[in-house]
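Entry 14. Ran structure prediction on the chain below.
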Amino acid sequence: MDSMIFDVDGTLWDATEIVAAAWTQTARQGYDPQMTITAQRLRGLFGKLLPDIAADLFPDETPERQMALIEICCGEEHRALLDAPHPPIYPGLEDTLQVLSKKYRLFIVSNCQAGYIEVFLKCTGLARYFQGHLCPGDTGRPKGDNISEIIRQHHLLSPVYIGDTDGDHQAARQAGIPFVYASYGYGQTDSPDYTISKLSDLIHLA
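Output, structure tokens:
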């Protein structure tokens, strides 16, 4: 193993409480004054592509209107995360990255909108540990393709992908690399190559 590629939501942090509040405010102003979007609901949606999330949240709208609403949600989400007094990272994240970065090259690939990974890195102050990142908002392509692109761009020889959902597992399979399942996250999957119950478990992975 020469490198690790990380998912964000449910793997590096849990921002759903902050995001849910921001999205609820937007939805009430532009879609349904009574609508409440909960953190629990977002945990079931995060990891999907943004158009699919928009269709789930705003089913009565046209696809164009769905995307317009979700883009406003994302803008409010970024502001809320940047204004939060403490980034909602999982325990031990920076200590783990400090150790891992001495041995492995670290990257991020997430199924998020453009700018979200940058917000994560700015909120947490952890940009120095990562050598690159990609998302569908940058490339227009899904997670499996973006994992493959990171591998190609950075000439990675033996990477693994760390995520918390079956979609993450399938993306790693598409890219032809091992999958590390973060069991503390949002989703479930069958037969991952490795399973971790906390971030620091990665230190002893190989």
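The beta strands are 3-6, 105-109, 133-134, 159-163, 179-182, 194-196. Will compare against last week's run tomorrow.
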